[in-house]
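Appendix B. Chain record.
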Amino acid sequence: MTERKFPRREFCKTLAFVPLAASLGVARRPGNKGTFKLRYIVGSSMYGRMKLSEILPEVRRAGAEYIDIWPEGHANQREQIEEMGHQQFAAMLKRHRVKLGILTRYDLGPFNLKEEIEVAKKLGGSLVVCGSRGPGNLKGDALKAAVRTFIEKAKPQIDAAEQTGITIGIENHSNSLIQSPDSMRWFAELNTSGHIGIALAPYHLPQEPELIAQLITDLDKSLVHFYAWQYGMGCHKKLPKEQELLQLPGRGKLNFVPIISALRKINYRRWTEVFMHPIPRGIPIRKITTQVTAEINRSRLYLDACLKKVLNSVDGG
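Structure tokens predicted for this chain:
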């Protein structure tokens, strides 16, 4: 197979972001070979409702080989798969040397995932993500009891995940049962299956690096997905583009170094997804594909620089 050449224009764009890493005081030291790495996945919703034929070539240009497919509401690539057929989609993935990683299905909720789990298995994916729904204002014993009830109610979905080797990720979405640090800790304590866990979005948490880092440490093996996503100035009110982009790592104020350090501490080996929501939903975060990819790369290089800083600190640098 002929090796694909990286377009000169895109290469130059990537080089433009190198000073960002340097600004963190991070340099590659000879012999510094930390084995911990961030494994990236690209969310199709970052490209809005663009065609899969336009998005898939960008995945490897964004430093990943896996894609997270989103449905209508935030994108429409899940619907595109059904329109073209599973076989054609699988061929398209192979042609672009991309693999399906995640099917995101907030629209289905946590108790209607069996068919989607089968689709994920068929297409080579390994994670289906949704929210928990339910009341988001419970505390103490009432919260613990509600989390236990949620796990029991999700048992048929968990059984289906176990039988197929798929994992279910529950995002800590706002206004839902599993959203607070306490609710996630109760979930980690009460859950007995390795095929369901937390898809952690710092956006929905207090923007305190040490709090987020401690939560990651507490979740440990119950953390099954990580969104590299901060609050910035939010994602529900129309803002100038530069303010909207503050949700991205390296643009907003959230310091990801303690967070990456916590991921390393628990030896997190699952995916990291550079993420944000555009306003309104369903549009790409930038107008054209190369601009979207450049934004993902900008944040990815920032996160990698944070990791290098962590590894250098561990090595005594």
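Further analysis of this model is presented in Appendix C.
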